[in-house]
Automatic annotation (TrEMBL):
Residues 1-21 are annotated as: Disordered. Keywords: Oxidoreductase. GO terms for molecular function: betaine-aldehyde dehydrogenase (NAD+) activity. It comes from Streptosporangium saharense. Pfam families: Aldedh. This is Aldehyde dehydrogenase (NAD+)/betaine-aldehyde dehydrogenase. Its EC number is 1.2.1.3, 1.2.1.8. Residues 33-494 form the Aldehyde dehydrogenase domain. It comes from the Bacteria.
């Protein structure tokens, strides 16, 4: 196992800082402090204790990273690397992720708060799987010949890298979502500048180290830590050809406006308000178990979290009672504790936002069935919030319309299944939807009628490296994962060859 240049040994203890010295920026293959020398603190959301200091990049660091990425884009070591050799580099990254899986999981849990079982069982394996999946694609990025109508002319297409890509990642699944972007970008021979969320940068730093260890040439992968201004500088920079961003719809709109300067290519995976439809014939116990887990996984901090529940009126009371009991039984605690079902929210600021939505729900007349408050006692120092269930929610209430991104379950009743798709679609979002039914016709009819990028029938919102991921409407632009990501990270060039002698 490689030794990190800045992390303390994991054995230093669950209450210890994890950064031995300030986390550095990676520019052109070299780790170093930011030009300004400024740092900022990252915190453990389970205890609010500092985990260490990170370098704060500024505009000059952005310029340097872009210059390094542009130089590497032309460097024969990368630009002329064979597809098979590139595949081997990606496969080595996957192997290193697995070899360092315990460390990566520990970092993810300390920095983000997710239960260690989630980090070990979902985040780390998912990260490795994405690199292996795209390692297989490097030798299959093909052009085509076209039967054009010009006489004696051969026409063929080439897929070429789009260029320098800014990968801006969120704080809810820092490691795995970064790999959704990084693996296809490298498979298509781009160079990248990673900008992780300032709240959760640790696994991005470690992954960048592993990329260098795997043999990624200098300058191909660069990393800048810092706040929103770093992301804004990357988006506005004329030397950046593409931006891939996962985060809020508000920031996505700002990125669209800022990218217009040099007409950057953009991929945006934005907010969601997943409608979950529980039909009259659904296996209710199975639906309750799936809906509660789908709503509260990672404490509800999931872009596709099940977040508004439409339940047949004849079964809504039973559903609400069982969902409230299941939610109340979940055990809150630090992610490192074996008994923890739900970890903390990521920051104090976000906890206050979630609590504000709960207070608004009560003010607007929703019935608070369980939860609705910050955890106290041994957990009061961290950012823990009790899982919350509301009954009697109507479509016009704020908690049914806006993305809460927390452990809140609003339950709405419906009378006519024929009208439910219209209610589900009455939202600015369209990332995902969920359907619970035993009837095959109902499942396929609703899956076609709901406007969402992904529809999950009788299951959790589990993405896969081979399947497209992205949203309709204000939930984003473009698709990640599967062969669809190759479209996002390549440009198509047409070549015309006159065959006349």
């Amino acid at each position: 196992m490689a030794v990190s240049t800045f992390l303390r040994p994991q054995e230093s203890g669950p209450d210890s800082p994890v950064l031995e010295k300030p986390g550095r920026l990676l520019i052109g293959g070299e780790w170093g402090p930011g030009t300004s020398g400024r740092t900022f603190t990252t915190y453990d959301p389970a205890t609010a204790a500092p985990l260490g200091e990170l370098a704060e990049a500024d505009a000059s660091d952005v310029d340097a990273a872009v210059d390094a990425a542009r130089k590497a884009l032309r460097d024969p070591e990368w630009a002329q690397m064979s597809p098979a050799a590139r595949a081997r580099v990606l496969w080595r990254i996957a192997d290193l992720i697995e070899a360092n899986g315990d460390e990566l999981a520990y970092l993810e849990t300390r920095d983000q708060g997710q239960p260690l079982g989630v980090a070990r069982g979902v985040s780390v394996p998912g990260a490795a799987e994405h690199f292996r999946y795209y390692a297989g694609w490097t030798t299959k990025i093909e052009g085509a010949t076209s039967p054009i109508s010009l006489p004696n002319t051969l026409h063929y297409t080439r897929r070429e890298p789009v260029g320098v890509c800014a990968l801006i990642t969120p704080w809810n699944f820092p490691l795995m979502i970064l790999t959704w972007k990084l693996a296809p970008a490298l498979a298509c021979a781009n160079t990248v500048i990673i900008k992780p969320a300032e709240q959760t940068s640790l696994t991005a730093l470690r992954l960048a180290e592993l990329c260098l260890e795997a043999g990624v040439p200098e300058g191909v992968v660069n990393l800048l830590t810092g706040g929103p201004e770093v992301g804004r500088a990357l988006v506005a920079h004329a030397g950046v050809d593409k931006v891939s961003f996962t985060g809020s719809t508000e920031v996505g709109r700002e990125i669209m406006r800022s990218s217009a300067g040099n007409l950057k290519r953009v991929t945006l995976e934005l907010g969601g308000k997943t409608p979950t439809i529980v039909a009259h014939d659904a296996d209710l116990d199975r639906a309750v178990a799936g809906c509660v887990q789908g709503a509260l996984f990672n404490s509800g901090q999931v872009c596709a979290a099940y977040s508004r529940f439409y339940v047949d009126r004849s079964r809504v009371d039973e559903f609400t009672e069982k969902a409230a009991a299941a939610a109340a039984a979940l055990r809150l605690g630090p992610g490192l504790a074996d008994t923890t079902d739900l970890g903390p929210l990521v920051t104090e600021e976000h906890l206050r936002s979630v609590d504000g939505y709960v207070r608004t729900g009560v003010e607007q007349g929703a019935e608070l069935v369980t939860g609705g408050r910050r955890a106290d006692g041994d957990l009061e120092k961290g950012f823990f919030y009790r899982p919350t269930v509301f009954a009697g929610v109507t479509d016009d209430m704020t908690i049914a319309r806006e993305e809460i991104f927390g452990p809140v379950i609003p339950v709405l009743a419906y009378d006519d299944l024929d009208d439910i798709a219209d209610r589900a679609n009455d939202s600015e979002f369209g990332l995902a939807a969920s359907i619970w039914t035993k009837d095959l016709s109902t499942a396929h009819t609703l899956a076609a009628a709901v406007r969402a990028g992904s529809v999950f029938v009788n299951m959790l919102h589990v993405p896969d490296a081979a399947a497209p991921w992205g949203g309709f409407k204000a939930s984003g632009v473009g698709r990640e994962m599967g062969p669809y990501a190759l479209e996002a990270y390549t440009e198509v060039k047409g070549v015309f060859v006159n065959l006349d002698r």
